[in-house]
Amino acid sequence: MNIDDFINNFAEQFDETEKSEFLQETTFRDLDEWDSMIALSIIGMVDEEYDIELTGDEIRAANTISDLFKIVSNKK
Amino acid sequence: MKTLLKGIEISHIASSLPSKVLKFDDLKDLFGDKEVDKVMKTTGINSVHIAADDTTSSDLCFYAAKKILDSLDTTDDIDGLIFVSQTRDHVLPQSSHILQAKLGLSQDTYCLDMPLGCSGYIYGLMQASLLISTGACNKVLVLAGDTTSKLVNEQDRASRLVFGDAGSATLLQKGNDGMYFDLRADGSGKDSLIVPSGGFRNPSNSKTSITKPAEEGCSRSQDDLFMDGMSVFNFAITKVPKLLKETLLELNWTLESLDAMVLHQANKFMVDYLRRKMKLPLEMVPIEVKNYGNTGPASIPLAITSKYSIDKPKLNNVLLAGFGVGLSWGACNCNLQNTIIFEPEIFNKL
After folding, report:
1. Residues of B in contact with A32 (CB under 8 A)
2. Which residue ranges does the record assign to the Carrier domain (chain A) (predicted)?
């Protein structure tokens, strides 16, 4: 698993946020566009792209995109 | 639980909707323009039908059932009535008994309430098929409906912008079809979709009815419906495709031999996600949520009546699947080729 691909896949779930805002250390919950609908898209993306089940609790426990990447890669 | 039941057919399907419509545009003052637009875009739901204070699920189902019964020469041979709903008329007696009398069905009728939600239609069909295939019953009505709007707090954005009310009626009788059922349960997920108070575990009192802020944009009380959207989505995308694939395998069906797959209409995002995961084309998997929302146990028959009542394609090999509260999920096949499918009716006061 590659962090850059993960960030790209993560960013693709957003419509309005500039790509440059998505970095490893980005606190995704602070993004204006972040909401529960985007969270569902992230769960779907992780399922489709990585065949990993990402739970709501795991998303709630993570702060940065890097945190999420670690959770997913540890399950791989 | 898996079983193949033989000697059945689905003869009629009807549905009904309460006349009052809640347009989500009208909730923008309460929840904000941007939020409501975003949810509508993702869920594909623009409005829902809402039952009046004095209209219950059994009223909506009665109305749909009447549509079928009025088209029959006789109703004397109907000897089973299954009512699938989480919004019954009373704690007791069962609503199925009330419906038996109201519909004028014989006193030889076997009546059963099944308090299930989004998987309930499949459970109801299984129960009816079981009664027919064993020879216990000749004809069984499955009445599935909910007035979920009455369980949702007005300030709960997450649920209010999803759930609508509807009723349905499906008549099963002796026939030449076989129906394969696969029903599954995981009660450890009970908290993902729950009305925490109001039963006997946590009876309602003055404290449980107080509305309190919950997640962002949502407030509710312990007497209201709570849905953990992320958990339910996760549950559906991991369990349902597996169930569908295993059901196809058991039936010895390929994706090419399938005529349609009608899923519980949770919302557009969910149904479309499952469709893509099953690699099925758009036209084979109806998404009928725009004007109805998620109508719980009525969503599958409502989708069938909404999509196929006028323009009916070949429907010999149809796969159905429901999933939700429990948690529970189930799938079955059915043959709707000769089924009389009525258009959804707007409920007029009884």
Report:
1. none
2. 1-76
